[in-house]
Amino acid sequence: MAICGTYYRTSIRRVRRNFRDDVNRELAKQRIETDTESLEWINSFLVKFWPIFQPVLAETIINSVDQVLSTSTPAFLDSLRMKTFTLGSKPPRMEHVKTYPKADDDIVLMDWKFSFTPNDHADMTSRQIKNKVNPKVVLEIRIGKAMISKGLDVIVEDMAFSGLMRVKIKLQIPFPHVEKVEICFLERPTIDYVCKPLGGDTLGFDINFVPGLESFILEQIHANIGPIMYAPNVFPIEVAKMLSGSAVDQAIGVMAITLHGAQGLKNPDKFAGTPDPYTVVSFNNGAALAQTKIVKESANPKWNETKYVIVTSFNDVLTLQVFDYNEYRKDKELGAASFPLERVHELTEYENEQLEVMTNGKARGVISADIRFFPVLEGRNLPDGKKEPPPESNTGIARFTVEQAKDLDGTKSLIGQLSPYGTSFLAFHSVMS
Q: Rounded to whole angstroms, how far apart are CA atoms 301 and 261?
């Protein structure tokens, strides 16, 4: 009787617990389907994280935009550059989120309501208001040439933005377990800003005060963004493809950059003396991929060095940053030259290319370089659906070098990655170096 009584009480207790959990779970699902959830925990995190992340984001945007502007400046302008970019000290706010639990098993579907209203002080402390930094973008347009040029600032400030965005996450079993993310606006977002094309901060006039101009500009913005990410159009982010494999797996070729030297390098600081220049090679002003030697006290250095870099996209921009070496202080950037990789898609060899070194919209010298692109060799698709082996190297150097390299430690796996792609000798040599 004691054993039966204990078994009965234990069973009843488990049944009650399971029943209570089932009821709570079903009620929670019903609330999720009809109600929205607060996101105050994310907002509390953003208040702490935004002052750390925002300066890094702003610097990245300035560097990226400057590269584009330097290569697309109209002929009638001396230069075009982004002087200032900041999103302010107040972070975006997540208002609420709605989840759809009845979506497919491999789909996460959510609607996010967010707002970016930096001029709203209602939820800010007195200390935050005192130290507040407003969002501001300053684009400098320099007209004229050389000594008679004049810089004009186009200012965009007091931006505000709010909208309802749908986020769809497609899951998968292999790593990184997220195949892609699709985002779109379910309705037109609200956009507000102040634009002063002339006069700067002191005498600038907001063009939105011109009758009919504000609605016209907003319609143009919506007309350009709408086909990209206004429902039913979605903006896809292929997460799995972005994270799959290394640069070698995604390589479309190798670029050989022969840096002969530079002429007429000028130090922005007139009292700094003759520079000790060297050049750093990168893509999109990002991480350094190669560096030349340092030439002491020369405004016309001769490097005569060839650097090899793996190319994964023709949409990148080759950046050649010239620095002045300092033994005890941080090296100072003299300027940067850029070369769009889309040019090598059409013509693979450029000899004695003269690339202008620019800083703050002003010329600081010229870099002389040879640029050659060696595409990855691939076999043709046969009629039976198979793929023929990659074509043989026309020099024989590639086969000889790869066979010899098999005796080197740590290179067998690398060769295994390169061989199926039929990469040329220069591709292998660049990766090894």
A: 5
